[in-house]
Specification:
disordered N terminus; 2 domains; DNA polymerase, domain 1; globular; seven-stranded mixed sheet; Rossmann fold; 256 residues
């Protein structure tokens, strides 16, 4: 049976005060979770990019893992470098530039056809299987939902449409509107301005450890959906909770 927002706040606040784990797969931070009114998601706790990297292996047999990792790493490094340099270009262009660089580094022939197919794959993303039921639970709690992602509005809207999630998100926010990438504070400020709430009232759900650290440092209560099971970043700040997926997010909220 769905609980109302007041009951939700009581549960979460109680969990933060006692340090009780919702399940053995969850890790609580030391920070208490305040009265949440909205949840903002990075794109990749919602959208599954595994088909993109399966296509990399299909197009470059035996080199998929190496090329995929190099592409993904450079993709995010370029967002940070461009933010620091003051030379912004949107995430679509960053993604293509990173692909070209990765292929050149590994001395692989990236034909125009392969390049186009790999880029198109980012417009064909669909939600992870756990997403739809988790979002329903959050909506039943009368929480406002939105995206706050580095990827472009076109990429976000394609994923929403592919996943049958039209109308679910009140805010579809890309850092493209500020012309700077997370983890710059100005990128996180977009969520505060759009929702009209304080940072403490918006729970941020991150995919990457660096994004979880950036959001928490900005002032958002933060849940890290650590789908890749990677170690926490050594950045001197920790999220409020860590789980594997959005099922763990709802368990943290409901079972505390």
């Amino acid at each position: 049976m769905p609980i109302n927002r007041r009951e939700f706040v009581t549960l979460v606040a109680g969990a933060a005060a006692t340090g009780v784990l919702a399940t053995s797969s969850l890790a609580m931070g030391q920070s208490s979770v305040p009265k949440i009114k909205a949840v903002a998601f990075d794109a990749f706790p919602i959208f599954d990019t595994r088909p993109v990297f399966a296509l990399v292996e299909q197009l470059f047999p035996g080199h998929g893992s190496e090329l995929g990792n190099a592409w993904r790493t450079r993709q995010f490094e370029y967002t940070w470098l461009r933010s620091m340099m003051g030379r912004y270009t949107d995430f679509w262009q960053v993604t293509e530039d990173a692909l070209v660089f990765a292929a050149h580094t590994l001395k692989l022939e990236l034909t125009p056809e392969k390049r186009a197919r790999l880029m198109q794959a980012y417009l064909e993303l669909k939600a992870w299987p756990d997403v739809a039921p988790a979002l329903k639970t959050l909506r039943d709690l009368n929480l406002r939902l939105g995206f706050l992602s580095n990827i472009t509005p076109k990429m976000l809207n394609a994923g929403i449409s592919n996943s049958g999630l039209n109308g679910v998100f009140e805010q579809v926010l890309s850092t493209d509107r500020a012309k700077i990438y997370k983890p710059h504070p100005r990128a996180y400020q977009i969520g505060v301005d759009a929702f009209g709430l304080s940072p403490e009232e918006i729970l941020f759900v991150a995919f990457a450890g660096w994004d979880a650290a950036g959001a928490k440092s900005f002032g958002y209560p933060t849940f890290w959906a650590n789908r890749m099971n990677i170690p926490a970043e050594e950045l001197g700040v920790a999220p409020d909770a860590v789980g594997h997926d959005l099922t763990d997010l709802t368990k943290w909220i409901l079972d505390a």
